[in-house]
Design brief:
Largest sheet: 5 strands, parallel
Oligomer: single chain
Helix content: 40-55%
Strand order of the largest sheet: 2-3-4-1-5
Distance between the termini: 79 Å
Length: 587
């Protein structure tokens, strides 16, 4: 029985041309070899599994090749290449800095550098995971790295460039290896599958490439795992079952249910996802990626940005044709807010369910507007618009009995008045609902079903969008002006917000500190503050976020020992006095 060799070793690139996804770096190295402009030290940095050590070995083999090709590749026939292929080269040394990170190890390396090569032009030292070297080892390596012999070349490889001393970085040519794209990994896996006689679906290999997260070695390991699971026929269903990946079908069904405003189906679908063991946050993250792909699918110019197979791109474009851009932007924003606030939510499942229900409302909002505007000729049409004015001026229902002179009008007027009072209650409930949990007003990271119902559609239509840029200095001046002008009318509220200076963060988020949560619960004065900032800054696209500052509680010393320890903290000489006089503490 032959020994099995994993694909990451069996198909490890042996030439610059076979390196996947690093064409810019391999071309630079080949040109340097061709023009004889090799530096004395190189630093290959980047994430795992992208070809750093592989390129270092290929470069070491090529520069020692006695008969390189015209494209600066090793010939694989000369004595130097044969010894390298048999792992018997005396000119190429690999050092694992994770286990050889002391000063003595570097001294041994420096002693080896003094001996010139026996075969070939150069002695190449490949130091992997170089960031693991200690500071003393780095300092001992500095002089040799800066002025090595002409025949010595150093290739350092690391995944954590920020841990390397700047003095080492300044002595090396730095090559940043990028993550390998999903398309490159998929094509490479297709070539390997063809060589191994494995039938693999394109969507299945695309999922493997996505799971690898830009690391080709991880992709090859997953490929071997799938061959062991499925044999010589790798299907999409086998991959998602083995890798515990949520199927695309769930997201397509979720969007279909949202477009159909089918609340029950969307809740049942989420329940099915959770019962199968998938994390709720992974679902909302996948939902956000799905909505992004739908947004890209609305324009052929950006369809290529979707990192999915060609079959899925066509399906995304078909479903995107059913969605408006406004709906996709609102739904994508809701998914993003849900993902950001997911950890702080106490009931995470309810948090996600509310987000999905709000997505259904995003799509169904234009429907009632069209129905109301399509019946302007009926006598009941003006009655449906008047509840907005009844809500603002409740005196109108009292005016109905004032006109009883016409006998024919009396039976008609009371009915519309009763109809008017019913929508007034339903309109006011959503705006009054957030006031109930007053004890949790300091937690902005929650989702409310009535968040978008704070204003009537008529008010939202006539609301002017102000988005003038402003700075932190402008914000501080407007804040101080409000404190100065309202310190007599609302002294308690002004005292709560006037102690600290607000801070302007990204996306116009204004953070301010208060001593008591009751200050944030003062909704009337908070509305005055926001209106003042809108008028002074000419901007209503900002968000106020408060933070309660907890006051430290002073510990009171009751016993003699605690009193002595507190005195000793203030004046350490008390301990010296106690020892000098031989005093004891009773308690």
């Amino acid at each position: 029985m032959e020994n099995f060799i994993v694909s990451a070793r069996k198909y490890r690139p042996a030439t610059f041309e076979s390196v996947v996804g690093q064409h810019a770096i391999t071309s630079t190295l080949q040109n340097a070899i061709r023009n004889n402009t090799l530096a004395q030290a190189f630093l290959f940095c980047g994430p795992r599994g992208v070809g750093k050590t592989t390129c270092a070995r290929i470069m070491a083999k090529t520069i020692n090749c006695l008969h390189p090709t015209d494209s600066m590749e090793a010939c694989n026939e000369c004595e130097s290449c044969m010894s390298f292929n048999n792992n018997a080269s005396f000119n190429i040394f690999e050092l694992d800095a994770a286990s050889n990170n002391s000063v003595e190890d570097i001294r041994n390396l420096i002693d080896q550098v003094r001996i010139p090569p026996q075969i070939g032009k150069y002695k190449v030292y490949i130091i992997d995971e170089v960031h693991m070297l200690s500071s003393a080892a780095f300092n001992a390596f500095l002089k040799t790295l800066e002025e090595p012999p002409a025949y010595a070349k150093f290739i350092l490889a690391t995944t954590e460039k920020h841990k390397i001393l700047p003095t080492i970085l300044s002595r090396c040519q730095i090559f940043d290896f990028k993550r390998i794209t999903i398309d490159d990994i998929t094509r490479h896996l297709q070539n390997i599958a063809a060589k191994e006689g494995v039938n693999a679906e394109e969507e299945a290999l695309n999922i493997v490439a996505q799971k690898a997260d830009g690391a080709l070695r991880d992709a090859l390991s997953i490929f071997d795992q799938m061959v062991s699971f499925s044999g010589n026929n790798i299907t999409y269903k086998d991959v998602i079952a083995n890798l515990n990946v949520l199927d695309y079908e769930y997201y397509f069904r979720a969007v279909d249910n949202i477009l159909a405003n089918d609340i029950n189906s969307i809740l049942l679908l989420l329940n099915d996802v959770i019962n199968k063991g998938f994390d709720a946050q992974n679902f909302i993250q996948g939902m956000a990626s799905h909505l992004r792909n739908l947004l890209l699918g609305k324009d052929e110019r950006v369809v290529g940005l979707m990192e999915v197979s060609s079959q899925l791109k066509t399906r995304y474009s078909q479903q995107a044709a059913q969605c408006s851009t406004e709906f996709l932007l609102k739904a994508l924003n809701l998914a993003n807010e849900c993902d950001i606030n997911f950890r702080s939510a106490n009931n995470k499942r309810l948090h996600l369910e509310i987000t999905l229900l709000k997505m259904t409302q995003c799509f169904s909002q234009p429907v009632p507007v069209q129905q109301n505007t399509a019946q302007p000729q009926q006598n009941t049409a003006p009655v449906q618009q008047r509840p907005v004015y009844v809500q603002q001026a409740p005196v109108q229902p009292q005016q109905a009995p004032v006109q009883p002179r016409s006998n024919t009008a009396n039976p008609v007027q009371p009915n519309p008045v009763q109809v008017k009072q019913t929508p007034v209650v339903t309109v006011q409930q959503p705006t009054a609902e957030p006031v109930r949990p007053s004890g949790r007003m300091h937690r902005p990271n929650t989702v409310s079903i009535f968040e978008e119902d704070k204003k009537t559609p008529a008010e939202e239509a006539h609301e002017e969008v102000k988005n003038r840029p402003f700075t932190g200095e402008m914000l501080t001046a407007a804040w101080k002006e409000f404190v100065d002008t309202h310190k007599d009318t609302c002294p308690i509220f002004v005292a709560g917000i006037g102690k600290y200076t607000p801070t302007l963060n990204e996306n116009n988020v204004i953070d301010y500190q208060i001593d008591n949560i009751l200050v944030a619960n003062d909704l009337a004065n908070m509305a005055k503050l926001r209106e003042h900032l809108v008028n002074r800054l000419d901007n209503n696209q900002f968000t106020l976020v408060h933070h309660v500052v907890e006051k430290p509680v002073d510990e009171i010393a009751y016993t003699d020992r605690s009193k002595f320890e507190k005195m000793a903290e203030l004046n350490p000489n008390v301990i010296t006095l106690k020892k000098g006089l031989g005093l004891n503490i009773d308690i």
